[in-house]
Amino acid sequence: MNNIGKSERTSQNRVLELFQNELGYNYLGDWHEEIRTIPVEETLLKKYLLSRGYSETLSQKAVDELVKSATNLSNGLYASNKEVYSLLRYGVTVRDELGSPKETVWLIDWNNFENNDFGVAEEVTVAGRYNKRPDIVIYVNGIALGILELKRSKVSVEEGIRQNLDNQKPEFIQNFFTTIQLVLAGNDTQGLQYGTIETSEKYFLKWKEECDKSFDYVLDKHVFQLCEKHRFLELIHDFVVFDKGVKKLCRPNQYFGIKAAHQNIRNKQGGVIWHTQGSGKSLTMVWLAKWIRENVADSRVLIITDREELDDQIEKLFTGIEERIYRTKSGRDLINVLNAKTEMLIGSLVHKFGRQTDEGDFEAFIKELKENLGSDFKAKGNIHVFVDECHRTQSGKLHDAMKMILPDALFIGFTGTPLLKKDKLKSIEIFGPYIGNPYKFDEAVEDGVVLDLLYEARDVEQFVTDQTKIDEWFDAKTKGLTDVAKVELKKRWGTIQKVLGSKSRLEKIVADIIFDFETKPRLSTGEGNAMLVSSSVHQACKYYEIFQNNNFKNCAIITSYEPHQSDIKGEETGEGTTDKLMKYEVYTKMLNGKSTEEFEAEAKAQFIKEPARMKLLIVVDKLLTGFDAPSATYLYIDKSMQDHGLFQAICRVNRVDTEDKDYGYIIDYKDLFHSLQKSINDYTSEAFDMFDKDDVKGLLKSRISESRDRLETALETVRAMCEPVHPKDEPSFIKFFCGDTENPDDIKATEEKRVALYKAVVKLIRAYANVANEMHKLDYTEQEAEKIKQEVQYYSDLRDTIKQASGDYLDLKRFEPGMRQLMDMYLNANSSKKISDFENKSLVDLIIKLRDELEGTPEDKKRGRQTSVAEIIENNVRKVVNEESQTNPKYYERMSKLLDELIKQRKLETIDYKVYLDNIKKLAEEVSNSSSSQTYPININTRAKQALYDNLDNDENLAILLDEAVKYNKLDGWRDGGIKEKKLRIEVNNIVGDPEKTMNIMEIIKAQNEY
Q: What is the pTM of this model?
């Protein structure tokens, strides 16, 4: 028997056995025949509560409270799930009877996990607007806490993730996810991925852990590790946070780091947690602090940071775990709080006394603490101190000062960067050894937590050559444009030429960056943006002026400088603008009446949320630590930096964003890594010379060599996919990737091959688009570059043809964003095979275009070409008929029959090909515009009325009466599958008088846009 690509049923049976035999879950049954509306099995839950000694009344009231919260979706799934989570974690407070004291009913025994009833059910049919049936649901005490979608081994886990995401929509079974904590998807080959409610696909996580037990399938190992009873409830109890509208679970590195810290704390031993930039250090702090507060007697937690962003972020995160942190206002305030015992969670910011840096002034902070120590001071409670960015030398001084004030406290240091060789021993001596295993940059990249970084050193004088660069820029901007468009473009030519021709170094760098924004992926499409690190506030202001003068308006300066009138007092000499005057004038104009705080907050928010409107932030010291902006793709460095400062800065662009962000790019104008002089591949030398090599391994890669490897790998991948096709003509490719295009089973069976092709071609286009204007730098000759361009175009055309033939052309999944713009920019836009995505009348245009193409085709190739063209057209028509059929079933049923007859005539060759094209063109027009294809009574004058008329046996009066009734009785948001929709259905039935016919007519009414 062939066991390759076995059905998901086989995997499901095996996983269910694992739950029962290995993990000790009860099998609750196959529930596909029963229909559930809520995620709580009330009978099971009540039975459990009674067994725990709660009274009948308390048990019933607790169940009722949970069901009430679980069925309340008035504020959306997030709010409902958050309310339910609170009841699960903190218990339900109810009274046995009026006048009696309130009691807490624990729905789950968190202290003794084995005291709970764990069960799994399969094929759980859930009622929604459209019913769905999750593969496996995990229940604890009758409450659905986990949901698992399985896929066969040759279907990707992503399909299961998307299925879960679909199910959470209001159209399906959103009502079932109000209690769900873990959302799981898996297959035998890729294993399990986990998230929680509303987790987007890119943030689903893989579990990483060594396992002593051997499994045949990685899926089984992950289920065994993640769903073990203690682990499953521990993740829910200790590793969930509701963060500003997003529910989050821990990553494996956070889980194991915190678990290791638990043991250190039990042993009263400090240490250092090193988790690389972008891997969730703030959440690690918050979850660990929560655990300490709940598990260590008389505990207090003090978190010290020198960044306002982190201080503010931590406060918000504590709110997400139902805790409040007190943020001290000064050193004196901190001493007073420690001396009392009113605040148990305390945040202290090392306040900024200096104005030239974004880092705190440790010396001044320590001095203020010591000055405010009273003779009666003694810190109260069992204090645990978290020190952020503990690698800094100043943190050692802070540690010494805090040890003097808090001699009995336990200190834990946190860092997102490697420890310097000279500081490593000292840091370990101060705080203690590493807690758990360091989570380094290369491991985080491998796990998909952060992105890889590509490095490029640019020498301004060599890189910006006058006419050559201008020609490159103009060629890039005029690809595929008409002569008229080129004339329009030349209106801007004078400004650009002036900028590129200047001798000023800053102007050349500005021109360089503008060039990138015109030509680089993400920058040119507005989906990504950049940061420019300047060496001083004065230089930052000069940069800003140059950008503004060159019509690059969507940028801002973010520095520690605040303009004040005293800055310009006595500065006017009559000899020109001084540095202080220039800074004051530039800043005042940029702020435009706003305070620096207001302006900075708006600029940062826009940079993160609207990258096309805030393209570039010019910074000096600010935002180089703790500023998380997934949109940030390029970091331009024009400042001498090294070690921790440089490490943190370059990690500003390594955050995961949309699918089209493959890397973060570091453009170095200071040649910090001395790569040009030394011609070495180790880009961690020089600037990172004070780190151990193992600690920064794999941090940076050469953009040029990496880009060439990436392009050639992408080309080889697509070539290999197409290798089995012979001969390499359109009919053969269509047959290979689609099968018989009229057979839905063939289309489905070949779907995996097509999706693989689409993804591979997308990767190829991205890889090419990234280097299209600098192929010579990758050491390609002009002939080689032209050949690659043509090959990329060939595969792009093939992809479009296959999408059209299979009917996949509207399947714009998440790997597609921005590709149309990239293809238009870098590839010939006038491809003969490239057909615009279908929108009504373009179908007719398609037929005319393809018919004209055939006129120039040689006779010996015409027959095969005619067949493939006809199949493309027929599939498009069929697709529209199927998609629109619900709006007017009778009409589109007739169109479908006409299409079937035309296809039959073509295949039997009983119709001339030109006549066939004319007939299919006419049919396409009728499909695209139903209202113009037949004669209706004068009062049947809208598409909705026409649909009712066609499906009510051409009864004009009944159609008009129904149309008026729908418009009069429909409520806002009436398509809710609930009371509003039921009310309208009753009104329709009063007119139609036939319940079955009413149900059919209601489906047509729901499909009309005008209702």
A: 0.62
